[in-house]
């Protein structure tokens, strides 16, 4: 078990924690393994993860069907080194000393699988760059 205190920690935040932030967290966990501590949350979490998002991720071999949207907490932000927002507006608390990135990505809410795939692929490219940057 790696020493979690020494690991870089990333928090992904979007409004519903049902699409973009779930995909980003899953990609980071999948690609970085135990080299990074990963969290995701939403400012107004949905009841379930978007089914089209679950399907899109399963197409690339990542199962997020058991994930549940989580509410954004101050503690989650404080515990993270990097906070990546994806359209959560002004609801994300800001703390000194944290690194903030804002990824401008379309919202997959209410979209079919054909609209979700390009969002998924764009998130994967962002994650690959992030891994190079933080590990």
Q: How would you characterize the overall build of this protein?
A:
With 135 residues, the chain is α/β, with parallel strands linked by helices. The chain contains four helices and four strands, in the order βαβααββα. It has a four-stranded parallel beta sheet, covered by helices on one side. Helix 1 links the parallel strand 1 (9-14) and strand 2. Helix 1 (20-32) packs across helix 4 and helix 2 (51-59) packs across helix 4 (113-134).
SSE order and pairing:
Layout: E1 9-14, H1 20-32, E2 37-42, H2 51-59, H3 74-78, E3 82-85, E4 99-102, H4 113-134
Parallel strand pairs: 1-2, 1-3, 3-4
Strand-pairing-aware structural class: alpha/beta
Which segments are poorly predicted (pLDDT under 50) over 5 or more consecutive residues? none
Shape: globular
Radius of gyration: 14 Å
In the sheet with the most strands, the strands line up as: 2-1-3-4
> How many distinct helices?
4
Count the strands? 4
Distance between the termini: 17 Å
Helix content percent band: 25-40%
Strand content is: 5-15%
In short:
The protein has helices at 20-32, 51-59, 74-78, 113-134; strands at residues 9-14, 37-42, 82-85, 99-102. It is of the alpha/beta class and 135 residues long. It has a 4-stranded parallel beta sheet, with helices on one face.
Annotation keywords:
135 residues; 36% helix; globular; 4-stranded parallel β-sheet; alpha/beta
